[in-house]
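User: I'm curious whether this sequence folds into something compact or stays loose and floppy. Could you predict its structure so I can see for myself?
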Amino acid sequence: MSDSTSPRTALRVLVYSDDVNTRQQVILALGRRPHPDLPELEYVEVATEPVVLQNMDAGLIDLAILDGEAVPAGGMGIAKQLKDEIFRCPPIVVLTGRPQDAWLATWSRAEAAVPHPLDPIQLAETVVSVLRSHVPATT
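Assistant: Here's the prediction. I'll summarize afterward.
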């Protein structure tokens, strides 16, 4: 947890999946700094819906990556709930079961979708694009 008296230099990325391997794939694909124009990333790994909601309600998350295939609560339903309930909700990227499910990401109001199996390059490009449009560049 960051000290409230000093500015945060890293972006906090929540990674939600009931599957530890999926969470690790996301973190390994993105690394600490997926692009030189962006601050470093700090990860918050979450395996259950209540903990996602708790972290998002706290207001310290800059981006959420939610697994649409997670059980019992899928990431797309959680994304829709977050967008409906949190004022100025941070951007959300959902991981879909397949490319054809991208329309569901639109329904969930997520900023972007990346299909399983995860392509590390596609995931990194998507996350960088979403963060660039929502986070000021570092100098």
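Summary: DSSP finds five helices and five strands in the chain. The CA atoms of residues 77 and 108 lie 6 Å apart.
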